[in-house]
């Protein structure tokens, strides 16, 4: 069995669905079901006894100890995190509590569990920590992409909290011998993405006839990674990664936010045209930039390809087409996840 934290969130739920497409090994899924955790993402697993869900928090030491002792996982995959930069600017406390304190308590529980394992199980055990490229800071236009050796320069409360969690994971390997693996990924997109992030937000607003908000001049550049590719990379790192190592996971797809939105508008014009025959791009509006907005992220994923043989299967063109199609095919999911609380948040965040 493997233990997945945050398995009802965007990447965590996609990982669990992907896991069961490739394995029948059971999954213990621990999730606090905060605003972005949605068990409906895993509705297809209903009745599958290999998926064991526990509603709980990674900061609950007693719960963690009981789960580890009773289920005896061979690996812990740590997805659970507060992850939205904008929310971290408005309220950093939850990010510190979940991403730093929560990771610390999880590491402590896992350290105690690992220490009492028989030698053969101890050697095979892995703790895989899923992190972000934002810990590396911001790149200038002509700088090379982030390599694993890039120094940390986080610029938001979110990225600072993830950087701290990365350092804790590294320290538990070097101090206590915990066999850890860390992945730092670029911007994910795909099915089940909570619609506060750029791509699902634009799709939702475009179909609702609402403005499509773009921060500043829209020239912030990100590397875009289809979530299915990310899941495949994590499976590969868990299978063959070297304990103590960090692996960057990227899509080799650098695009400006404005170009991403224009691409989405073009696909929506094709799949679901407006009633007045005008382009969805006419709904684009530019809003005040967020504080400390990083200008460019880009991932150098050559280490993962060189050492473990992984490369993304999707281009941005193929992945974004699948993504738009998924949202159009799942209007009920979108309607349920866009609650009143979500509408209040976006109205507050994206005022022109």
Brief digest:
With 352 residues, the chain is an alpha/beta fold. It is built from 13 helices and twelve strands. 44% of the residues lie in helices and 16% in strands.
Give the arrangement of secondary structure elements.
Layout: E1 2-5, H1 10-22, E2 27-31, E3 51-55, H2 61-71, E4 75-78, H3 85-90, H4 93-115, H5 119-124, E5 126-132, H6 157-176, E6 180-185, E7 187-189, H7 198-207, E8 212-215, E9 221-226, H8 227-240, E10 246-249, E11 254-256, H9 257-271, E12 284-287, H10 302-308, H11 316-329, H12 331-337, H13 340-349
Parallel strand pairs: 1-2, 1-4, 2-3, 4-5, 5-6, 6-10, 7-9, 8-12
Antiparallel strand pairs: 9-11
Helix pairs in contact: 1-8, 2-4, 4-6, 7-9, 9-11
Description:
This protein is an alpha/beta fold and 352 residues long. 44% of the residues lie in helices and 16% in strands. It has 13 helices and 12 strands. A 7-stranded parallel sheet has the order 3-2-1-4-5-6-10, with helices on both faces. Strands 7-9-11 form a 3-stranded mixed sheet. α1 (10-22) crosses α8 and α4 (93-115) runs parallel beside α6. The mean pLDDT is 94.
Summary tags:
single chain; 352 residues; three-stranded mixed sheet; 16% strand
| Overall mean pLDDT | 94
What string, H for helix and E for strand, traces the elements in order? EHEEHEHHHEHEEHEEHEEHEHHHH
Largest sheet descriptor: 7 strands, parallel
Please tally the β strands and state the result. 12
